[in-house]
């Protein structure tokens, strides 16, 4: 019998916060109570020390780029899953901008099976909205939904054609799926490498204006109003977008949104050194935007923290800014950035990392569950007070493009359990 006693921690789950030990047996939570260590029921269990730690449902990432198939030199489903487990994640939604694209059942099935084989994290493939993410022809939504796809997105680019997007929403209505939009009017961002504003003028670099995002957020909110189908706004980054989503929610529209760790902590000033480590899409914005996004998370306008974990091989990020690909790592640092940057309680940050994204991803039957007898034991145990610095060489991700070197992070994952078995113990991946 496979048994673990998680001892001495503070349990935080959707039902609240309390001091309790957690007994895990055969993949599920068997008991939750104070001083379970003295109970004969826990006899023979392997003890996991949680003193000073929070025991929470595992984190769920709505936005992970695993790069397989196609760019295995940057990440594989196995290395990305390992990075996820180290960051406290038990489930990730794999973005579709792979090669080939996740636009048909065979590719989606491949990704799901590779995730199962790695056994470190529950990998849920997204499907693209258009074939090859080319923006012209819808993918077979019903067939992909039947294969278990819940999130549909062309992430990496936004669906530009408003008629095609309208049809996508209309088809989505009868299926239990969510369209997730990468909000970018591409015509307004051609050649851009950073946010358009004071800094880009000073540095002499081509800028990506806030309205390129906000016009698309506005358009899609209005398409939601017209069709009634839900939308999820990916990596929202401007003060104006936060306000648009806030108003849409006040109107009762089915709109959800996510923000990344980098958009709540870093600004466009970092591009001063012309390093592509800070090139990302959407770009790092101003402090006023960062504060607005933090405010959006704090008042619930933004539902989830999602990493947009975007591994890129070192040689690609060493290129000049205009040639280097956009994107930065996120899975192993999200908790530490979130707790260091947000003026929210630990429980509120955990909600944004766990059960709120679980609901959007359609995985709330297995992840982000209350920690109670009979529930699946997908759990994260982290020290909310440990401060630490990232050492890129120690990251589990195959790529090392983290922008958080030299930044003090607060909060570190110690142990992660997937279906009742440790994927990470004392910070060390178990496979
Ligand atoms: N965010 C990025 O800058 N890059 C992502 C694509 C994306 O999420 O838009 C990538 O795939 O590298
Ligand atoms: Zn994107």
TrEMBL record:
Indicate the residues that form the catalytic site: 308
Alphabetical GO biological process terms: 'de novo' UMP biosynthetic process; purine nucleobase catabolic process
Q: Where does Zn(2+) 2 bind?
A: 155, 182, 235
Enumerate the CDD domains for this protein.
DHOase_IIa
PROSITE patterns, alphabetically?
DIHYDROOROTASE_2
Q: Which GO terms describe its cellular component?
A: cytoplasm
Which metal ions or organic cofactors does this protein require, according to UniProt? Zn(2+)
Q: Does the keyword Transcription apply?
A: no
Annotated Dihydroorotase catalytic domain residues: 54-238
Q: What class of enzyme is it?
A: hydrolase
Where, in this chain's numbering, is substrate bound? 65-67, 97, 281, 312, 326-327
Q: Where does the UniProt annotation place the signal sequence?
A: none
Instruction: Answer yes or no on keyword Zinc.
Output: yes
* Keywords tagged on the record: Hydrolase, Metal-binding, Pyrimidine biosynthesis, Zinc
**What does the UniProt cofactor note say?**
Binds 2 Zn(2+) ions per subunit.
Which HAMAP family does the entry mention? PyrC_classI_B
NCBIfam families according to UniProt? PRK09357.1-1, pyrC_multi
Purpose: Catalyzes the reversible cyclization of carbamoyl aspartate to dihydroorotate.
Matches recorded under PANTHER family: ALLANTOINASE (PTHR43668:SF2)
Family statement: Belongs to the metallo-dependent hydrolases superfamily. DHOase family. Class I DHOase subfamily.
Name of the molecule in the record: Dihydroorotase
- Gene behind this protein: pyrC
């Amino acid at each position: 019998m496979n048994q673990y006693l998680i001892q001495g921690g503070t349990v935080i789950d959707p039902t609240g916060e309390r001091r309790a030990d957690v007994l895990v047996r055969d993949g599920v939570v068997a008991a939750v109570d104070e001083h379970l260590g003295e109970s004969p029921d826990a006899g023979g269990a392997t003890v996991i020390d949680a003193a000073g730690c929070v025991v929470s449902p595992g984190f769920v990432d709505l936005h992970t780029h695993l790069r397989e198939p196609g760019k295995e030199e940057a990440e594989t489903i196995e290395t990305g899953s390992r990075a996820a487990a180290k960051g406290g994640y038990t489930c990730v939604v794999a973005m579709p901008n792979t090669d080939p694209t996740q636009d048909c059942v065979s590719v989606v099935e491949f990704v799901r099976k590779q995730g199962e084989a790695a056994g470190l994290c529950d990998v849920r493939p997204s499907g693209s909205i258009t074939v090859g993410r080319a923006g012209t022809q819808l993918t077979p939504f019903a067939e992909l939904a039947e294969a278990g796809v819940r999130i549909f997105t062309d992430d990496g680019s936004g669906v530009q054609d408003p008629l095609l997007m309208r049809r996508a929403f209309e088809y989505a209505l009868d299926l239990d799926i969510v369209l997730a939009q990468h909000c970018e009017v591409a015509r307004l961002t051609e050649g851009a490498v950073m946010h358009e504003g004071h800094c880009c003028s000073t540095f002499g670099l081509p800028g990506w204006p806030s309205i390129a995002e906000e016009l698309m957020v506005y358009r899609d909110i209005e398409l939601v109003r017209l069709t009634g189908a839900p939308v999820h706004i990916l990596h929202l980054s401007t003060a104006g977008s936060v306000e648009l989503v806030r108003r849409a929610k006040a109107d009762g529209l089915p709109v959800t949104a996510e923000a990344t760790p980098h958009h709540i902590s870093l600004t466009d000033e970092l591009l001063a050194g012309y390093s592509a480590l800070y090139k990302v899409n959407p770009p790092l914005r101003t402090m006023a935007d960062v504060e607005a996004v933090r405010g959006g998370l704090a008042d619930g306008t933004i539902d989830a923290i999602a990493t947009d974990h975007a591994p890129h091989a070192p040689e690609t990020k060493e290129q000049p800014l205009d040639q280097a690909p956009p994107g930065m790592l996120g899975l192993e640092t999200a908790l530490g950035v979130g707790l260091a940057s947000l003026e929210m309680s630990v429980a509120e940050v955990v909600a944004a990392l766990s059960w709120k994204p679980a609901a959007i991803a359609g995985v709330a039957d297995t992840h982000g569950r209350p920690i109670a007898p009979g529930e699946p034991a997908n759990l994260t145990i982290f020290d909310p007070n440990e401060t630490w610095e990232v050492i890129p060489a120690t990251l589990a991700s195959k790529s090392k493009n983290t922008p958080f070197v030299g930044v003090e992070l607060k909060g570190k994952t110690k142990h992660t359990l997937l279906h009742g078995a440790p994927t990470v113990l004392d910070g060390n991946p178990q496979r």
